[in-house]
Amino acid sequence: MMNLKEKADTFSWVGLEVDKLKMELDPFRREEILLPTEPGGWWHQYVCPQHHTELIFDVMEQDAVVFSCPKGCKLEGEPYRGAWLVYRHQAMARYALQSAVVFAADGEEFYSSLARKILVGYAEQFPLYPVHPDAQPWMLSGRAFHQALTEAIWSTTLIRAYLLLVDHGVTFTGEEEVKLQVFFTMLEESMEQYRHILIYEKKNAENNYTAWLNASLACVYAAKGTREKLASLLEGEGGFYHHLSIGVKPDGFEFEGSTYYHIFVLRAYLIAAEMYGRFGIDLYAAKGEQGQSIRGMFQLLAELSGDNGELPAVHDGPYARVPFAREIAEVFEIGIAVYKDPSLQPILANAYRYLYGQELRTGLEAVLYGAGESKELQTSYRVRDSVLLPDSGFAVLRHPGNPLSVLADFGEHGGSHGHFDKLHITIMHRWGEVAPELGMVPYGSVLRKEWYSETASHNTVTIGGRSQAPHTGSCCQFRQEGNATYLWIRSDGAYEGAVLERHLVLADGWLLDWFHVEQVTERSQEVDLWFHPTGHLLLPFDPHRVQKDSPAVLGLEAGYGSVEVLSAMKNETDCPLNTEWNIRYDGVSTCREYEVSTSTLLAPGSTMYEIRTPGNAEDPSRLLRGIMLRHKGPSVDFITVYRDGHEPAVLKLVSQVGEPPQIQIATTGQAVVYCLDPKAGLIQEKSRNTEE
Question: Interior CA angle at 242 toward 149 and 219, to 5°?
């Protein structure tokens, strides 16, 4: 594999990016390196208690005491200071790695000296930290941070910087080396102790912590050259192969069903694989007991991603964060370099688009992990079929030529990072989202449990105003025939005495969503279907507020009448708010506006409400305008058709009174009739020309 000097000399784009990295480090030529002497807290508490947005972190501020919310709030003291320290320690570790990378590519000793100062500085400080006294009881307590997990992640960055320097001929003084070895030994003892507690005392080997404790120890063993101990992390309970077998489903998804934690674990695996590769052990081709693999984890993300490379925020996970986008960039640069798989490039391009406003390799991750002579990434439209993930409990409906796609969630709850969201759907358009999952705020916000993990924040059903119980749904049917896909998913564990069934048909530029709810208990309760689009809603009525503090706005009430709603969308992902850039490198604007029309049949006893709810997790204070359908009665059919463009499908009931609902969907030139058979599911009765 080409080293960084060869890469910079061979590929002009790498040399240019190295120059940019040098410019970012120039302030250290004029300023003394100030490592915080205090241990960090828990980064999830770096959140505004009023607006629930992540607080601003200025990477150039060396000692902050006032912490600003993007909305103007000013906060002081704990827990914000401790959370800020996490950001600062992580930033300094990244500077150490960045300095080592620049030295490896450029050879200027200033950069090796900068990396050495940071590394040795932390080696001197680490023994002074006690086991953190302020860690929360449920945490594995670290020294440099509340969580041992944060410590493990931080340590891998520092040790990768150390190894990069050593690989490129940098020698430390005898005194420096003693300090570093003490640091490594203390990390080793701590991580081994944490690992024992997690795996053998807590009996929680599948936890994502395990992957990171293994990664940290792999780095420590590589730095100390203890091959025997490195080999011991491969086998046995909680070892790499065991964790891959229990922490990842056979279909390739991390067991918590979260794209964020999937990438989180995948990154730990890749760091471990890098360390093992130093000793000639190849983990990139490793297999779990049911065929799980690192490559399969990449392919899973390629299957779940939208046409624009965006990953859905299912279960816990941020909607969008710079650190998360950097993790995606690192992971996918490595994946593309190792597996030479072009289907991964749109996800990488989307990460760079979020970070820098362009679909080009840029920054530290590109220089360190990127491979190839081209800075440009493949972002062309990918032809992909619908896919069912039976082990994880997700399905994606999509077809070539259809701008709409939908992801459905029917699987396991997802443990501590799961949501009460069975039968939720995420609707996407080729140019961006239509009705997504809203993501997750930092865990220090009360909205984590009060809103974002609750059922009402998802595009699914609640009964009696309560969230669903944690449970696992099922898939009754999944079939793709040509350019049409049908999915029938079911839940009988969300509410006692209630059965929820969702039928989805994607075909010919439209999506049919038929949600059937049956309450078999004596006392029927109100059933609410929630819909959270992120675009601008154009409603067919002028609503008024029921009461000042209520989120609901009275809308229409009808008896199987059709209501049409238009959602106007703009792809803001392609128009970064933190830059003035909105033209792609080829001169084509990537800011696209698109519209999705909605036709809904309101059953007798149902009411449509307009709702105001917290926005997506990136900015909860930016309220969303959504729709909630409420029904009073023992059973109900919520029937909706989504269509690309501003002309809605014509949706009407064609069955007789007292018969099961039979509906007709009419679009330009064609009409299709569907009925719901309790045993066979959704059946297409006929298709005919609308002129007939």
Answer: 45
